Structures are given as C-alpha cells and as structure tokens.
Amino acid sequence: MAEKRDFNRVAIQWDDKPRRVQLAAGVADGIRRAVPLKETMTALDFGCGTGLVTFHLVDSLKHVLAVDSAEKMLEVTLEKARENGIRQKIDTQLSHDHFPDNITQSFDVIYSSMVMHHVPDVAALVRSMTRHLAPGGYLALADLDVEDGTFHDDPTGVFHHGIDRDWLVSYLEDQGLCDVQAGTVHTIVKQRKGKEDTFTVFLVSGRRQAE
Question: Of 21, 27, 179, 205, which is most buried with the most CB atoms under 10 A?
Fold first, then answer.
C-alpha cells in the first residue's frame, strides 16, 4: 500500500507552480461546460488543496464546502477567501482519504480534481459522493488518464497510475447517474532529460435524476 504524502509541507508553496494553476483553470472550465452552475447551488470540493478550482467557480455558486486531508491546505484556502472578500461563501472541513462520515447534507454539485489517484478505494468514494448529491445534482470528477507511472516524481501517496475514464463513466451510470459524459480538459507537459512527456486530464460528469 502506498504511503500517505504529507501535503501540509507543501501547502504554502502549492500555488507557486504555474502548471498547477493552469491545470485548475482547465478543470474549472470543464466543470462550467458540463454543469449549469447557478448562484443558488451549494457545492462540495473534495480534495480541494488550496482551492485553486473552487476560486474559479465560487462566484457562480451560493456556497462551497472545501474538504481536504491536509489542515495547512485548508488554512491557505480560508486565507485566500478572506483576501478575496468571499470568506462567507467558503467553509472547510478536514477529511482523510474517504468522504467524511459526519457530512449529512446533500449538495447540488460535488467536484474533485486530481484526487482519485490518491484514494485507495475510488469506487467507495464515488458511491459516497453520489449518495450526497441532491436530486438533480451534478458530480464532476477530474483526474489523470491511465499512465505508465512516470507522472509523479515522488510516488508517495499514489495508489493508482491514473484512472480509467471509461470505467468511471460506467461506474457513474451503475450508480444511477444520467447524462454521463467524459472529455479531456487539460494536457500536462513535463520536460525530463531532454524529452517531453504529455499527460491528459479528463473530466467525467453526471447528474442525479430529479425526484
């Protein structure tokens, strides 16, 4: 089993890498295309990190609960919310590698970015997310396509070398979601030893049927 990575150690510098900022923008754009966001909607960002995706979306939402396993990441998220004058629109909650057991409310949108490959049991996570969707609510999950294990320079905390988007589409449909779709939202380019490696990031989304 993969050892857990301590994201607290990198929280302060997390936003300093342009590649991460560009990735978040691509994922957020994909979510906007897949989900008709409204200012009446509540959302949950699972594995929010420093809120890079959320800060692209929060203006179009009523409220976001930002969930992460690293306390320092949540502190950075809240500080950025205060600096941007939107602290009232974002709350945070500490979690681990599964959906928090003490969350009882439902959400109009649940999204995550580059989180599933760090989660041992992806199917269990997706089931929990689906159960916490409000009627008519949307699930939007972004992650690496399956890769050869070379994406991470440090494999600590990596349980999967990407996620099979076709499997995820089928699994969302098995959970009863409708309008399930998949698409590439970003390409990450890494330069190593004089050669260029490219990795694609997908977004799979679906909607819970209204009751």
Answer: 27
Q: Which structure tokens are listed for 197?
A: 């490696």
Give the tokens for residue 164: 């099979």
Strand pairing partners for 94? 68
Over range 110-117, report the average pLDDT.
Answer: 96
Type of residue found at 97: D
Please tell me the distance from the alpha carbon of residue 81 to that of residue 92, in angstroms, as a whole number. Answer: 11
- How far apart CA 38 and CA 152 sit, in angstroms, is 36
Q: d(Cα 164, Cα 13) in Å, to the nearest integer?
A: 30
Mean pLDDT score of the chain: 91
What's the N-to-C CA distance of the chain in angstroms?
40
Name the CATH superfamily housing domain 7-207.
Vaccinia Virus protein VP39 (3.40.50.150)
User: Cβ–Cβ contacts within 10 Å for residue 34, how many?
Assistant: 22
DSSP H or E stretch at residue 131: helix 122-131
* Secondary structure, 3-state, 7-32: HHHHCCCHHHCHHHHHHHHHHHHHHH
What is the token pair recorded at 200?
A: 């694609």
pLDDT digit string (tens) for 127-165?
A: 999 999 999 999 999 999 999 988 888 888 888 999 999
- For the entire predicted model, the pTM comes to 0.93
